[in-house]
Structures
1.
Amino acid sequence: MAEFVQVVVDGVATGSIYGALALALVLIFRSTSVVNFAQGEMAMFSTFVAWGIHQAGVPLGLALLGAFAFSFAAGAIIERVVIRPFEGGEPLTLVIVTLGLFLLINSAAGWIWGFNNRSFPSAFPDSSVTIVGARLDVESLGIVAVLIVVVGLLYLLFQRTGIGLAMRAAALNPDASRLVGVRVGRMLMLGWGLAALLGALAGVLVAPQLFLDPNLMGGVLVYSFAAAALGGFDSAIGAVVGGWIIGVSENVAGTYVNFIGADLKILVPLGIIFVVLLVKPSGLFGSPEVARA
Amino acid sequence: MSERRVRIATLVAALAVAILLPFFFEPFRNNQFSLVLAYSVAVLGLNLLVGYNGQISLGHGFFFALGAYTSALLIAKESVPYLLTVPAAGVVAFAAGFVFGVPALRLRGLYLALVTLSLAVVAPQLIKRWGSLTEGTQGLTVNQPTAPGGIGLANDQYIYLLTLAIAAVMFLLAWNLVRGQTGRSIMAIRDNEISAKAMGINIARVKTRVFAVSAGYAGVAGALYVFTVGFVAPESFTVTLSLGLLAAIVVGGLGSVTGAVFGALFIEFVPVWAGDVNQALTGFVYGAVLIAFMFVLPGGMASLGKRIKRIRKRPAKQDTRPERTERTTAREGLT
């Protein structure tokens, strides 16, 4: 029982990281209808920036803040320069462009920092607490807490502030929003900036558990896609709940199903994406898509 | 009529150059050329799916790997004559593509991209998991085809010409497929699925078959790859391969048969050239080229000639409409 609790809590913790990156995907999808294949690589790059600043002797907390600020600016610039010219185009074009970004950022990081593994310090103390006989890391609990706070903040931003309202309006109907004075372009940049920031958060949360290298987020991205698909690509709550479901099922399957083990864990999100998209393509919390001629 | 003659002459000249090529280069180069031909078959297959039919696949490395392993295992473990493994690899990949194409019917645009991407990610893992059959991480070495005695060809030349012959057949088949009625249905679905349906095209049948044919092409390409390389390992079939194939159709030209050769040249020689400079340069060039082509030349290299001609002809700023082949239309795929 204790082992099971531990497996589940660890699953929720990794699921929270998937959820954070999935939130970033959802944020961009909602504001620009783009699925950003480069989201994971942007997060990896931000994590390297945090690492670099920290390496230069700056305390970890400040280094993280610096990396977040960098990510926000970089995200907004990428939207303006690379994505904007293709906005509203065919999905294929946008998939190709974001895949191009994926390769570009991945290799840029490899070029600058090399392909060696590096350890990344955790922002949480390395201790554990015992609940119902299970030893739970403070880090795991901290990650879950961070995600919950982030979701709360996002909710407040979108539902309770003028900027949030403008962002939602710009995504829903750009032309009408322009007519009432919303600066649609700015809102899209803001959306990408926030998504990049969220991605950076996911990156610095996951990096202490894996090793920091240019392929840090490759696996995480697939899990996050699964989380976003499961929750519904346009639902923030869905992304988080989806992340948890993926994290827990992956961990449980990896521990208790012999055939899957550590090697084939990746089949779990694949299977989930597949089943969800076939049975309920809009996901658990998403709104169904409507096709018109 | 004269334009047709020019095209035929170009084709004949290109074929002559392709046949004579291996007699002017050393074995190392000839192997690279053989690989270009193998990749061009896969690129062509992917283009049937993406460029002509508008279904996005980021997972064709999976079918490529399936074909490669089918051929390698048949040769190494069952001693099947290597020529027979080409259709075998094609059929296995075709069947897998058909099975996969049925659920793919319900997925459009981005969602299909996501699912196929996971297919690409999972391929090396699956190969390792069935290590008892595939020899796992250490890979499988295969005897390459050897030139029959008495025809005066070195092995590398023989493999190249063999690959060229098979690739030529595959190109001919593809060209034949896209220019007839079937091709028109395939493209009609890309351009507007709902109108295509209204015209009486059986969408489900066409789409699943195109998926299967496309996967079959990747499978044949996998077998050809085995002939040239003589070795298969999980690490040869990572996501990079799948993304490279996609980059190749963008470079070559979406919805273009001849473009596949340009694309294959690109994915074979860019890594060779870039790897000398820096380990990371290949990905960098792939990424930059993908974005740059979308900005500047969305029709790929195959459209370059037309593009130049149009710019020269254009008196004023009239007629800047994109050509039919320059963009694939699948807008309905997106919410």
2.
Amino acid sequence: MSARLLGWALAAATAIAVIANQRGVGIARDEVIYMQTGARYAEWWIGLASFQHGIGEASITRTFGGPGATDNNREHPPVMKTLFGLSGRLLHDKLGLLDEVTAYRLPSAVMAGLAVALVYGFALALWGVAEAVIAALLLLLLPRALFHAGLACFDAPTMTLWFATVWAYARALDGRRWPWQVGVLWGLALGTKHTALLLPFALGLHYLILGYRARPAGGDLRATLRAMIGHRWRVIVSLAVLGPLTLYVVWPWLWFEPIHHVRDWLAFHTNHVHYNYEYLGRNWNAPRFPWHVALVTTLVTVPVATLAAAALGAGVWIARRGRIATAPELLLALSAAASIGPFFLGTTPIFGAEKHWMPVLPTICLAAGAGVVWAARRAAGRIPERVAITGLAAAVALAALSEVSVAEPYALTWYSALAGGAPGGADLGMNRQFWGVAMRGVLPALPAPAKPTYIYTHASTSTRAWSRTPCSMPAGSRPASSAASSPW
Amino acid sequence: MTALPSRPLPIAAAPALLLIAISGWELCAAARDATAVPAPDAAAWRAAAATVRAGFRSGDLIAFAPDWIDPVGRMQLGDLIPIEAAARMDAARYGRIWELAIRGARSPDTAGLAPVEAVERDGVAVRRYERAPAIVVGDVLDRLASATSDGPRPTLELAEVGFAPHRCLQISPAPGAAVRIAFPRLPLGRELVGYVGIADVFTRRDVRSPGRLEVEIAGRVVASAVAGVDDGWVRFAAPTAPGPADVVFIARATDANRRICFAAEARR
């Protein structure tokens, strides 16, 4: 099997694993909203493409916006929601290939597979096939990430598009004439979740550092600044122009009053309400939050062996710094820092925990890949290097797999062996469950109703999370045209 | 000149050995952790529940430890836990307490007590404690009808305070204005014990100032407590002279919609 094919095989395996795993996961509260609005977004695009309607402010507002801050879920951009809707319409409604929930969740699973492919490709291009395979495998074998990837939500796709942008940026540093990919991918990342706004902090700093290194010897301040800012100026133009432009194109809500609507979008998140979040035995629903929430949560929600390998890999990266002119290790570190950094401030909402800083995971897994290969090569002597790498990689991957096997489908309750597993996490007073996904497991214990019925997961909402007829969409969440055929 | 050996020093294998050791430990630990707690419908829980049912008497209290296992406990024995027990002020009035515990945990309700009976059911410990219960001679929750208020009247609620259910009298004083809730001729014993807290997690989030409660007997403040948003169910107590007395609870808040919940009972 060629190295490239191996990467795609790992990506496919990831998507399949995500799809298989999500079958046991109840429908999350927010997921229902995204499915519902995604179905409407998809209908609108299909209507536009089939000339059933044109581009009118009224129809766009009716579908994508409204006067209220959360009307038609306008607080979140539409890329993934639209894909959820298109997938549901095609793979369930039209072709009948998948049950409704799986059809809506499929795009997120595919994006998880794509993330594995990207990590694999990144490592393959820079270091080697061993690092690539190990990093990809360890990304697949992250219990929380696997769980989040199975929901029709934005967190796994955001990680994918964030990392895709990072890689596109790294490739664009080769001086290519038209580095359009980086701008478009960042635009798609923005079109998925607002957290992509943090990415330019990583790319920008990396860009400036590379420019500083490339400054002319003996140059004055002006020459240094010119080198720092202009050494790959097309990358900057791509990000600055194509990024916002892509966001604009994919989000019809911005087609009218774009500045006003962007301001509303950002204001929603800068003033986001704080939900309850249990951390180390205390409920946190108002700032200031402990500075170490993201650090500790990451430490106990990534398999221990993966973290240990990543720590070795980070050391390897530091030792080898400067060997590659474009400093990819620095880029990965900055990418992780930009993703997780805001959660050290004490004011950023922490309720989503690890899912809100998932773009840190490719960096961790790439470092782990580097760490495993380095450690195995040092140990190789009496045994062939290939055997040493395979054996060590298998040990670390098996440890991660063991965590996955005990975590699902209640991975939000799971904590790594470092915390003592799920019970250890509970003893530590760490957060366990949100969004109501766990309620699916209690359905068999409930008396079977005479007819399909609704199960309410939140006292404060009427969204329906799972019926006695599994794998069916909430009728009220569907477009009116298809609600009648729902088994609910 | 002889060539230096190319074989790496044994120490070079240390990082790999460390990774193998961590991986092996995690493999075992994950498997161990996964079975560390019996499943909610496991035979261990059913056997533990059967033990309790066999010896249960009306008026007994059933407690679970650690507190995060409470839903499983209620699934097994919820029919023996009336609201009055589940939303109790504290456990002092219970002379017999059944404790179902895992992972070596103890319930705060049994602190300082020694079990008179203890059995283990496949990882679920069942312990029975006995003690002289507090004799309650007056409970403000039972006397709300006779209470007077110089402001809004308190209501009897089953409220969430500190993420636990509590039956309590709830009052939301106007900002800066104390509300005096008087219980005329409340029978007293040797001690008045009460608790106060702020109800409703969402108003605790949105209004961050504490609530205050003072207890006045015969015109003299005998106890006071401040309940902050993260303080939960705060105890207060005062020695009292046996016999009926006018007892006044004075609630204060600096912000609107501060849902102060309190309960108190006079003990012989």
